[in-house]
Write a structure and sequence with these properties.
38% of the residues lie in helices and 18% in strands. The chain is α/β, with parallel strands linked by helices and 289 residues long. It folds into two domains: 175 residues, 3-Layer(aba) Sandwich (Rossmann fold), CATH 3.40.50.620; 88 residues, Pantoate-beta-alanine ligase, C-terminal domain (Pantoate--beta-alanine Ligase, Chain: A,domain 2, 2-Layer Sandwich), CATH 3.30.1300. The chain has a six-stranded parallel beta sheet with strand order 1-4-3-2-5-6, sandwiched between helices. The termini are far apart. It binds adenosine monophosphate (AMP).
Length: 289
């Protein structure tokens, strides 16, 4: 496994690969790897000749006051895990090389980025402008045939799909299911912040989503959301949002169309911001009015 530290090195290696290699898979990460990342790496390994993992804590997707400074980092461990998962190249640039003096470009997806995590009361639309700009740069630098993302960040997946289509990237965007701890908590690098007590309470996030799913089938969407929110609040967690949206457009869902519904939640658990979601497939839409 080779570690590439600068865009220039990345571009040079990509040129070398062009002649000899059929397909390149990219897994973008901010590091502090866990099984969620690993599932993406394994899929990339199975499906491509060459696997590139990017390792970059992207400063522009953090708002002032968020956890950029304390975001968990352990490059040595990440490199060992990546090697174990069969990664060929790790692209681990420095912020100064990605955003050199004079950098002035922003890639922005409208609409989809103004709800849920993008609303002003959450991380704000600037968060996704940071995400789409860095993903755009990574797709340009690595020029992968396939790029892998997790359903854990459902809104990010929708926004990236939109960007890739709108900007005619020829990279295929693949979204893989959320990997969970045994008790249901979605794996996240930020879980490392949780005290044992907060870690236990955080399981209410997934159980509140399961509750929403099960109530939906019998009592419809409004009652389902209410039951989910209640379950979360009874664990002492007040959600930043707990909303039902259609996954492709992120329009508010009314539950009457029979289309799959994304229920997405963000919540602060003892100072740690966690997100999760569930995709509900209405089994009998006509009974849901
Ligand atoms: P991050 O390092 O948190 O930016 O995540 C890098 C990629 O891994 C993103 O595409 C995430 O959606 C994905 N990811 C993070 N956590 C999980 C998880 N628990 N299951 C599946 N994918 C995940």
């Amino acid at each position: 496994m080779k570690v590439l530290r600068t865009p220039r090195e990345m571009h040079a290696f990509r040129e070398e690969l062009r002649a000899s290699v059929a397909t390149v898979g990219l897994v973008p990460t901010m590091g502090y790897l866990h099984e969620g990342h690993n599932s993406l790496l394994r899929a990339a390994r199975r499906e491509n000749d060459v696997v590139v993992m990017s390792l970059f804590v992207n400063p522009t997707q953090f708002r002032a006051g968020e956890d950029l400074g304390s975001y968990p980092r352990d490059e040595k461990r990440d490199l060992a895990i990546a090697e174990g998962s069969g990664v060929d190249f790790v692209y681990a640039p420095e912020p100064g090389d990605i955003y050199p003096g004079g950098f002035a470009t922003k890639v922005e997806v409208e609409g989809l980025t103004e709800v849920l995590c993008g609303s002003e009361t959450s991380r704000g639309p600037g968060h996704f402008a940071g995400v789409t700009t860095i993903v755009c740069k990574l797709l340009n630098a690595v020029d992968p045939d396939v790029a892998y993302f997790g359903q854990k960040d459902a809104q990010q997946a929708t926004v990236i799909r939109r960007m890739a289509e709108d900007l005619e990237f020829r990279t295929r965007i693949v979204i893989l299911p959320t990997v969970r701890e045994r008790d249901g908590l979605a794996m996240s690098s930020r879980n490392a912040y949780l005290s044992p007590e907060a870690r236990k309470r955080a399981t209410a996030i997934w159980s509140s989503l399961l509750e929403t799913e099960s109530v939906f089938d019998t009592r419809g969407l409004e009652a389902a959301l209410q039951a989910g929110r209640q379950k979360l609040e009874s664990a002492g967690i007040t959600p930043e949002y707990f909303e039902a949206r259609y996954p492709g457009t992120l329009d508010a869902a009314d539950g009457n169309s029979g289309d799959p519904i994304l229920v997405a939640v963000a919540a602060d658990v003892d100072g740690t911001r966690l997100i999760d979601n569930i995709l509900i497939e209405p089994s009998n839409p006509r009974s849901k009015s």
